[in-house]
Amino acid sequence: MTSRLRLGINIDHVATLRNARGGALPDPVRAAHLAIAAGADGITAHLREDRRHIRDADVERLATELTKPLNFEMATTDEMLALAERLKPHAACLVPEKREERTTEGGLDVVGQQAMLAPRIERLKAAGCRVSLFIEPDRAPIAMAVKLGAPVVELHTGSWCHAVVAGETDKAASEFQRLAEGAAYAASLGLEVHAGHGLDYETARQLARVSDFVEFNIGHFLMGEAIFVGLDTAIRRMRLAMDDGRAAI
Ligand SMILES: CC(=O)[C@@H](O)[C@H](O)COP(=O)(O)O
Ligand SMILES: NCC(=O)COP(=O)(O)O
Predict the structure, then answer these.
(1) Which of 22, 57, 69, 218 could form a disulfide with 42 if both were Cys (CB 3.0 to 4.6 A apart)?
(2) Any transmembrane segments, and where (predicted)?
(3) 62-80 burial string, b = 16+ CB within 10 Å, else e?
(4) Looking at the predicted structure, is the pLDDT value of residue 1 above 70?
(5) Does the active-site annotation cover 90?
(6) ipTM value
(7) Active-site residue 156, yes or no?
């Protein structure tokens, strides 16, 4: 019997829409509560250094108001570490960040940055956060996650999702294989394996067939769908797509 996949809802892009007009609406925290009512197992929010979507006040409210776990995505900076140590979110997911990028391009360079990461991961663990590393689905970063003492990895699904949407079938097949092999390798080393970035109903359904994944974090696609069908319906459809994929194992 394969376990049920957890669904974390990323509410960053509710804040993108709010910030386009500089006011208070739409409220990403309201979206988080609605997502939980629709069946989300947790909420993900990424406080970027440039505050382009989620802002400090949003994270403060999420950390105190939510009835389900908060997965706080953060760059490994002193500012973000201090915030995580103070707010103690359930999970702290370390992600790479570049000011000039449109979205998170690629995984964290855990191999090149191991000396910088090691003490910072220890600080987050000491604060009680479950540390997750957002990495490429390759053996070297996965093995390094173990060495660094992170209990969780989130495998970046962006390259695969992009290839699927672009109709690049050969690339999509090899990227899917890379994700499936990466998930199996990570699970074999005792890591909890998550996935996220760019997932939609169809890619989530397909990836749910890889039994090593225990959690998907999904945002941008669902916020787009919410314009057409409402957020509650979009999340329930995503839940069904994931359950459908998992039932096919
Ligand atoms: C780290 C990641 O994959 C995404 O959660 C990201 O937080 C979404 O926000 P951006 O679109 O700003 O990358
Ligand atoms: N970590 C990935 C995430 O939280 C959501 O990514 P996306 O669905 O907004 O691309």
Answers:
(1) 69
(2) none
(3) bbeebebbbbbbbbbeeeb
(4) no
(5) no
(6) 0.96
(7) no
